[in-house]
Amino acid sequence: MDIKNGVIEKIAVREDILSRPELKILAFDIETSKDPLKFPDAEKDVVMMISLMFDGMAYLIVNLGFCGQAVSSFSYTPKAEFACEVIVFNEESEKATLEKFFKLIQVYKPSVITSFNGDKFDIPFIVTRC
Predict the structure, then answer these.
(1) Pairing of strands 57-63, 84-91
(2) Mean pLDDT of the chain
């Protein structure tokens, strides 16, 4: 690929690349507190939980500072082909919950991180809370 002044001028086929890379995809979703009948406000509301799926494994990070009670790991089977064990991490605070989330990203080193509405909600909310 030739780039001049930020413009792609030529794209060439790489004949030496024989296969596609193995992608490691991490999917996540956050749950937040909020006032009744209001949309969550990252300036005052907190991250209560973060769920993650990576390489067939499921994780749930729980903010005990908000939820108050530890959650045990559990089996989850929405459909037979999606059966999995959910490993739960009970963290003492929102800060510890977010730190555990970032630590898991560092450990697994995903190629792709995805989330439903992550660009418009999850990521901005996490950034503000950090």
Answers:
(1) parallel
(2) 93
The full 3-state SS of 4-35, as one line of letters, equals ECCEEEECCCCCCCCCCCCCCEEEEEEEECCC
Handedness of CA 38, 43, 47, 52 (dihedral sign): positive
Vertex 16, ends 15 and 22: CA angle to 5°? 110
> Which secondary structure element, helix H or strand E, spans residue 128, and what is its range?
helix 123-129
Does pLDDT of 1 surpass 70? no
Residues 6+ apart with CB under 8 A from 93: 63, 64, 65
Neighbour-count burial of 34, counting CB atoms closer than 10 A to its CB (0-12 exposed, 13-18 middle, 19+ buried):
middle
| pLDDT tens profile 7-51 | 888 888 888 888 888 899 999 999 999 999 999 999 999 999 999
pTM above 0.85, yes or no: no
Q: Which of 114, 109, 99 is closest to 52 using CA atoms?
A: 114
